[in-house]
Write a structure and sequence with these properties.
Layout (H helix, E strand, L loop, with lengths): L5 E10 L3 E10 L4 E10 L2 H14 L6 E6 L6 H9 L3 E5 L1 H10 L7 H14 L10 H31 L6 H30 L2 H10 L7 H10 L9 H7 L4 E2 L2 E2 L3 E2 L3 E2 L5 H17 L1 H14 L2 H22 L5 H9 L4 H8 L3
Parallel strand pairs: 1-4, 4-5
Antiparallel strand pairs: 1-2, 2-3, 6-9, 7-8
Helix pairs in contact: 5-6, 5-8, 7-12, 8-10, 10-11, 10-12, 11-12
C-alpha cells in the first residue's frame, strides 16, 4: 500500500492577549486529518518571526497554507496583518462559527490548544472566506472611536477622584485644582476626537450616506453609528443577524441541565464590548421616543421584572436595526418595524429567552 500524500495544509491559531496557540495540520489522500505539530508563541513581533520560521520548517513547499483564526477583540489583528504581508492566505471567522463546528465534532473540553486544533480542522474541512483587512477610513474610524471611549473612561475615573476629594475631610485645594485641570484637558481631547470622527465621515460620501440613514433611528447619533460600523468593519464578516448578535456578545448562555440545574439565563458578553457600550445610552433614549421599542422594553420588563434585561432587549434590537439599514441602505421606518413585529409568533416568550442581562 502506497504511503498517503498530503493534499491540503492548514494552520489553526487561537489568539489571546499575550500568547498564540498554533496547530499545523494536513489532510491526506486517505482523507485523514493529521496534526503535524503544535506550539505556543508570544503575541508580539518576536513571536510572529518565530512562528514564521516554525511554519517554514513544517510546510510542504509546493502546497499553499491556509491560516484560520477567530475574531477576538483586537488581539488577532497584528498577527493577521503580519501573515497576510508575507503572502499567507488568512481567514478570520466569528467565534460562533467555531463553536458550531466544535459541537459537530463533539468536543467537550475547551483549551487554547484544542481551540487551535479545531480551527486547523475547520480550515481543512470547510470553505472559509479569505480575510480582507479594513480599508484606510474604516481602520481610522475604529481607532478614533476606541480612543474616544478610552478618554471617556479616563474622564469618569478623574471625575470620581475629584468627587472623593471634594467630599473628604479638609480636602487639599491644590490637589483638587490639578484634578480639575486634568478633567478640562480630557473634555477638550474628547471634543477633538469627536470632531475628527465627524470630519472623517463627511470626507467619505458612501460612509456619510450610511451613517445618515442609521441616524434616522431616533436616539442613534453619529458617534454611535460610527462606533458600530468601525467595530464591524462595515459588517464585512457578518452574514446574518445571528452572527452579529454573537459578535456583540448578546447571544444567550443557558445554565440548565435536567431538573437539578436551573440557573439564570444571560447574555454571553464574550463578544465586542465596544458595541455594547456604544448602545447603552441610545437604548435608554429610544425607549422614551420610539413606541415600538418602548413596547418591547415593557414586555420584557413585565415578564422578568428586571430593568437591565429589558434595556438589553432594546440594545440588541437597535443593533439589528442598524445592521439592516446599513445593508439595505435605507432610512428607518417605524411603521415597518411595528408591522414586522406583529408577524412574530410567541413574542413574549422569545424576547424573554433571547435578551437576558
Amino acid at each position: 500500500m502506497s504511503k498517503p500524500t498530503i493534499l491540503k495544509q492548514s494552520i489553526g491559531i487561537d489568539v489571546s492577549k499575550d500568547k498564540i496557540a498554533v496547530c499545523f495540520a494536513v489532510e491526506q489522500t486517505d482523507k485523514k486529518f493529521r496534526i503535524l505539530a503544535t506550539r505556543k508563541f508570544d503575541n508580539n513581533a518576536s513571536g510572529f518571526a518565530q512562528l514564521h520560521g516554525w511554519i517554514k520548517k513544517h510546510q510542504k513547499a509546493d502546497l499553499p497554507v491556509n491560516v484560520l483564526m477567530e475574531a477576538t477583540g483586537v488581539y488577532y489583528e497584528s498577527l493577521a496583518y503580519f501573515l497576510r504581508e508575507i503572502n499567507f492566505r488568512v481567514s478570520v471567522v466569528l467565534p460562533n462559527k467555531t463553536k458550531a463546528f466544535a459541537k459537530s465534532l463533539d468536543y467537550k473540553t475547551k483549551t487554547d490548544g484544542i481551540d487551535a486544533k479545531i480551527l486547523a480542522q475547520m480550515s481543512l474541512e470547510r470553505e472559509v472566506s479569505e480575510w480582507a483587512p479594513a480599508g484606510k477610513n474604516m481602520l481610522k474610524l475604529k481607532r478614533l472611536c476606541r480612543e474616544r471611549i478610552e478618554l471617556l473612561m479616563d474622564k469618569t475615573s478623574v471625575n470620581n477622584r475629584l468627587h472623593a476629594k471634594k467630599h473628604s475631610y479638609k480636602g487639599e485645594g491644590s490637589s483638587m485644582k490639578r484634578a480639575e485641570k486634568i478633567l478640562a484637558f480630557l473634555k477638550k481631547q474628547i471634543e477633538e476626537v469627536e470632531q475628527e470622527i465627524t470630519k472623517l465621515i463627511a470626507s467619505d460620501p458612501e460612509l456619510k450616506g450610511k451613517v445618515e440613514k442609521i441616524c434616522s433611528i431616533k436616539g442613534i447619533g453619529i458617534i454611535t453609528a460610527a462606533t458600530i460600523i468601525g467595530e464591524t468593519n462595515g459588517f464585512a464578516l457578518i452574514k446574518n443577524k445571528a452572527q452579529l448578535v454573537s459578535y456583540a456578545g448578546y447571544d444567550v448562555v443557558e445554565n440548565q441541565s435536567g431538573t437539578s440545574i436551573n440557573g439564570k439565563t444571560k447574555i454571553s458578553k464574550r463578544g465586542n464590548s465596544f458595541i455594547r457600550r456604544a448602545l447603552h445610552f441610545p437604548a435608554l433614549t429610544t425607549i422614551k421616543h420610539n413606541p415600538s421599542l418602548k413596547a418591547l422594553y415593557d414586555r420584557v420588563f413585565e415578564s422578568t421584572r428586571i430593568k437591565m434585561k429589558a434595556a438589553v432587549a432594546v440594545q440588541r434590537k437597535l443593533l439589528v436595526l442598524v445592521y439592516t439599514l446599513y445593508r439595505k441602505d435605507e432610512c428607518f421606518d417605524p411603521q415597518g418595524l411595528i408591522s414586522n413585529k406583529s408577524n412574530l409568533p410567541n413574542k413574549n416568550r422569545q424576547e424573554q429567552q433571547s435578551v437576558p442581562a
